[in-house]
Design a protein that fits this description.
Layout: H1 2-16, H2 25-31, H3 75-101, H4 107-124, H5 126-133, H6 142-160, H7 167-178, H8 183-213, H9 215-219, H10 221-240, H11 245-250, H12 255-262, H13 265-272, E1 306-308, E2 325-331, H14 336-352, E3 357-363, H15 373-383, E4 389-391, H16 396-400, E5 408-412, E6 418-423, H17 428-442, E7 467-468, E8 489-491, E9 502-511, E10 516-518, E11 523-538, E12 541-547, E13 550-557, E14 562-581, E15 586-592
Parallel strand pairs: 2-3, 3-4
Antiparallel strand pairs: 1-4, 2-5, 5-6, 7-15, 8-9, 9-10, 9-11, 10-15, 11-14, 11-15, 12-13, 12-14
């Protein structure tokens, strides 16, 4: 039991410092407010007792009451307590309650957004604030009323809190969805919530400290309340329309640290008791081993409520896919790690669908609002997912595959045997190499296209390798000055032009670890050799494509990172590419075919 508590605590700590909690941090920071209420002096009016002295008689005045002592500010504790309580309770029991009452699956998220807007309005308009404090009006101290409002804010945030999930949260989510809640799950949930609370509380206390130390918080309290209220309302709309996703995806992958703790041998042994013994053959294989192994027969899809992207919504039968290689991708649309891996899966589907590969997405929801088929269909369309997607709302297929991570990829050979799986982000080149291996084994005569994510060793084709546009992995940069990390900088093309497999920037760019963000007059020059060129882009705007100095197309860019085709020639050739970006667009990586 102690080991289980430690695993939950560490899992919560790691989750609370992941990119997924960024949307709630501004509200948590501002929730603390000034440290104390200002002391107030009051004089108790004296009532005339019976037989009061007549005018002119001597009267002894009662001394004014002493100033009340400042009340300690416990609002940081209240908001974090509300957030953790709400998140823990509804993660375990939300699905059961919603199903029992016949309510819409996304009602909890809608309630959370509404509370955030109401409290924002309360900070701006005193009348709304008095309305929100009415449930706490029987409590005499006004400070307690404020703590009650902070607790209410925390309850609302808990409904919007969507942490990045690893094996610990996956175990809690599965148990809650299936109604299989025992003492171990409750202990794991409480310890996970406690681990999550520690960094959040530190952030809230920091906000209180700043409010106490900075004079502007005291002298301009009313203006700051209006700003804080407006920020909460803006955040609510940003969450409702998925605007915060781009910021979350821009941060580096953190799943390596998560896997070290939550998918260690000790953690796996403890969490394994929370699953049944079905399909134990899958445990013979290890995550991400760079070779094909026999991991047992691929389990069938079970408990699927809806199929997307199939003719007439008909289900896909794995047995009917014998002779084809199958890639099964477990994902959920609010998971940032899943979104960052989708462009790779989509590229494999495009490259190998006609060569014997079938990609199937299994959408296993982490939260209740992700069970709504309309929400999933809308997000799948926005993310460019065109292959079949199974809505695994009961997490039966998740259990069949003994899965523990979002995202997770399982590779099934033409005979229906699981040969490889990998958890989390990364290992894209390795996974694609094994896909190509299985396709060749299934049909030795198949002619495969160049790999989407690796350079081609065939010197006759001389294809330009995949080129990353981030300071972490960029190669072949030839512009001036040298890349400046995380600061908007004006760049220029080199005087002698851009040679083959080299690129340069011009205009204003911000170079980050994983992407380049365009500023005013942003342009990119690249010389490549391939049949076609693609670029992963995100944001809102347009991209103008010039090939060998001639404008060929203008692409409309919308939403999260998606692979866009820039050129498409019949044969491989050397060409010079210039791209002109509208400000705000993000460019992640070139791939060539």
């Amino acid at each position: 039991m102690i080991t289980l508590v430690l695993i939950g605590l560490l899992g919560g700590l790691i989750t609370a410092v992941s990119p997924c909690i960024l949307p709630v941090l501004p509200v948590v920071f501002l929730a603390g407010g000034p440290g104390t209420e200002p002391p107030k002096r009051s004089v108790t009016p004296q009532r005339e007792p019976p037989g009061a002295p007549a005018p002119g008689d001597v009267r002894v005045e009662a001394p004014p009451q002493e100033a009340s002592r400042p009340l300690p500010n416990r609002r940081p504790y209240a908001v974090v307590a509300g957030l953790v309580l709400s998140f823990g309770f509804f993660t375990l029991l939300g699905v059961t309650i919603i199903s029992a009452l016949g309510l819409p699956q996304d009602i909890l998220r809608s309630i959370g957004l509404s509370l955030l807007v109401l409290i924002g309005l309360g900070l701006i308009f005193p009348a709304v604030e008095r309305l929100l404090e009415r449930p706490f009006a029987r409590i005499p101290q006004r400070q307690v009323n404020k703590e009650g409002r902070a607790f209410l804010l925390g309850l609302g945030l808990g409904l919007l809190y969507v942490p990045c999930a690893g094996p610990v949260l996956a175990a809690i989510t599965v148990a809650g969805a299936r109604g299989e809640i025992d003492a171990d799950i409750v202990v794991l949930t409480l310890s996970f919530a406690a681990g999550t609370a520690i960094p959040l509380l530190a952030f809230a206390l920091a906000g209180r400290r700043v409010a106490e130390r900075v004079a502007a918080f005291r002298t301009r309290a009313r203006k700051l309340r209006i700003v804080a209220g407006a920020l909460m309302i803006v955040l609510a709309f940003a969450l409702a329309f998925d605007v915060t996703t781009a910021l979350q995806k821009a941060l580096p992958d953190y799943t390596a640290a998560q896997k070290k703790v939550e998918d260690s041998d000790t953690a796996r042994q403890q969490l394994s008791g929370l699953y049944d013994d079905s399909n134990k053959e899958l445990s013979r294989c290890e995550d991400g081993v760079d070779e094909l192994r026999s991991c047992g027969a691929a389990p069938q899809f079970a408990g699927i409520s809806t199929w997307l992207n199939t003719p007439g919504g008909r289900p896909v039968d794995l047995a009917a896919l014998r002779g084809r290689v199958v890639l099964i991708d477990f994902w959920t649309y609010s998971c940032i790690n899943c979104r960052r891996s989708l462009p790779h899966v989509e590229a494999w589907d495009r490259a190998y669908r006609d060569k014997g590969l079938t990609v199937i997405g299994v959408h296993s929801p982490e939260f209740a609002f992700e069970k709504d088929a309309g929400n999933v269909a809308d997000q799948a369309r926005k993310l460019g997912v065109t292959y079949p997607v199974a809505l695994d709302n009961k997490l039966d297929t998740w259990d069949n595959y003994r899965n523990r991570f979002w995202p997770a990829k399982y590779l099934v050979d033409a005979q229906g045997t699981v040969r490889y799986f990998t958890f989390g982000e990364g290992r894209y080149a390795q996974t694609e190499s094994l896909i190509r291996d299985l396709l060749t084994r299934a049909d030795p005569a198949v002619r495969l296209p160049p790999a989407t994510g690796q350079s081609n060793d065939d010197l006759a084709s001389g294809r330009t390798p995949e080129t990353y546009l981030g300071t972490g992995r960029i190669r072949g940069y030839a512009g001036t000055p040298e890349l400046v990390k995380d600061r908007a900088t004006v760049y220029a093309y080199p005087a002698g032009g851009v040679r083959l497999n080299r690129l340069a920037l011009a205009g204003t760019w911000k170079a980050s670890y994983e992407e380049f963000t365009a500023g005013p007059d942003a342009r990119l020059s690249l010389t490549y050799r391939a049949k076609n060129a693609h670029l992963v882009l995100a944001g809102e705007g347009t991209l103008t494509v010039l090939v060998d100095g001639r404008e060929t197309t203008t692409l409309k860019i919308h939403g999260s990172p998606t692979l866009y085709r820039l050129t498409d020639d019949g044969t491989a050739r050397e060409a010079h590419l210039e791209l002109r970006f509208t400000p705000g667009l993000q460019a992640f990586a070139f791939t060539f075919g």
